Amino acid sequence: MKGECIITYIMRTEMKKMLKKSCALVLSVALALTAVAAPSVADAAPKAKKIKLSVKKKTLEVGTKFTLKVKKTTPKKASKKVTWKSSKKAVAKVNKKGVVTAVAEGKATITATAKGNKKVKATCKVTVIPASVAPTTVPGAPTVAPSGQPQPSADVTPTKTPRPTQTPYPLPDEVLKDAADFTVGTVINYDKIMDGHFTALAAQQFEIVSFENEMKGYSLIDVPASQAAVAEEGEKVVKCQFDRADEMVQWAIDNGLKVRGHVLFWEASMAEAFFYKGYQKPDSSDPAVLDAALVDKATLLARMESYASQVIPHFEEKFPGTVTAWDIVNEAVDAADTATKDPATGLYLYTTGNFYKILGGEYVKYAFQYAKKAANSCGADIDLFYNDFNCFQSPKTDRIIALINWLNKDEKLLTAMGMEGYVLTYWPSASEFRSAMDKFVNTGVNLGVNEVCIRLSPQYSSNGNEVTDKDIEAHAQKCVDMFKAYKEFNEAHPGKLTNVSIWALTDRPDLLTNTEHYDYGVYGTHSGLFTEKFEAKDAFNRVIEMLKK
Fold it and tell me: Is the pLDDT of residue 140 over 50?
């Protein structure tokens, strides 16, 4: 009995051992099969080679938040998991879920790094502006923009004016500078910076501004002071005044904006006394009397150099890095069929102005040489522009290209071409404008689109009498077409588009009853992306939609 029990015990023990071995074998085989059949983690979610965020730029008010997301990966099935980091946590901080919080006024860059591949990154530039507060009313501030080129009194020193803050009108939800992959700006004057409505919209929508008149020669040259200096310092010294322009540059800084200088040397915007002996223009309409009073070549060159050597360094030294470009010469090329080549330069230039009368066609090169020297003297990293209108028309395009090549033949004096963006709703096509953009940049210079004005008013309407719903729709589509051209140009020529600056920002229905006003013909009545009450028009919304695609 005991023997049987022992045998039974041994058999049971051996069976248990065999069973354990069998289970172990089965488990091993199962694990092996699983390893073969199951895909690896890498196969399930390949490493990202490229990531794209939901936005590239964002403007926030202090205390507000928004969420950044990974919009797209390459390859498509790659993981969208990233880590987030802020370049300036004191300005904008970001948590692990991509929620960005605006902390203080300033700029910061939010960087997303792919978890599976630390070399793959994407960034979003965040601009934080002050929180909205109640609007400030400026007693006596004008509400209607002045005429195109008012000539300020040289002996008036402006006093510092209270800063406007915020508009009572709600701001748009969409922001042009965030939707565009290029720098967008607008054109301002002194009245506009006193307007809280405009100030709030400009701070929200744009990155750069140009001044209509306040950086032109007739605004910066102090004629009485220059006249007084002749007795002691001679004819070649220019005296300048910067109070009004400084106030406007400070306004730009306060609202997170850069500045384009417009314009250093332009016949139409220089103080007339600049060209005359003793800074005294004769009180005469006789051309012979006027010409006899002009200064000689040496004096005008000295005045040009004196002026450039004061103006460019002044803004760079007082507001470092704020003025990023200057229009050096403006609208000098003559596109008329009757125009003849300047014998000294071979260029087609206007010949009736005082710059040309005294210096000939070479004045354009002198202007750029003095501007470059002035910029180098203060370390200003700025683009030096030639700026003109109707640049898309033949033969003007080719004549400007000849000017660019002539200026840069021996040394690069001109670094950027400025195309004034005046077009009509029904002419020219966006493709015609884009074609000229390509031609200019192919000369090796940068390009900016300045004074964008897609004009619509009764005389530019389809019936020539009144603006209809059909015209409003056509205007919105033209805005989309033009901005699409800018976008596609920027994609084709990365880093070459310096700015797109809008002059006709809001509608001007007040001009319907003031057709003699300068702006009626140049600006138009229904040319804006916004209404006169700063409400976004369909044109604005459709431009945003196109840019975000």
Answer: no
Residue type, 459: Q
Map residue 24 onto helix, strand or coil.
helix
What values do phi and psi take at 38, rounded to 5? -75, 135
CA pair distance 296, 293, nearest whole angstrom: 9
Arch. (CATH architecture) of 44-129: Sandwich (2.60)
Taking the C-alpha atoms of residue 345 and residue 333, their distance in angstroms, rounded to an integer, is 12
User: Using an 8 Å Cβ cutoff, are 115 and 82 in contact?
Assistant: yes
Angle, CA 39 vertex, CA 34 and CA 43 arms, to 5°: 165
Cis geometry, peptide bond prior to residue 75 (ω within 30 degrees of 0): yes
Q: Are 273 and 280 in contact (CB under 8 A)?
A: yes
Parallel, antiparallel or unpaired: strands 121-129 and 57-61: parallel
| pTM of structure | 0.74
Q: Rounded to whole angstroms, what are the CA distances from 295 to 224, 362, 382? A: 17, 16, 31
The burial class, CB within 10 Å (0-12 / 13-18 / 19+), for 64 is: middle
CATH T-level topology, domain 181-215+254-548: TIM Barrel (3.20.20)
Q: Which two tokens stand for residue 396?
A: 């003007």
Q: How far is CA 474 from CA 205, 288, 454, 470, 520, in A?
A: 24, 51, 11, 6, 19
Q: State the pairing for strand pair 65-67/99-102.
A: antiparallel
Q: What is the pLDDT of residues 337-366, one digit of tens each?
A: 999 999 999 999 999 999 999 999 999 999
Tokens of 303: 């005045």
In the chain, domain spans: 44-129, 181-215+254-548
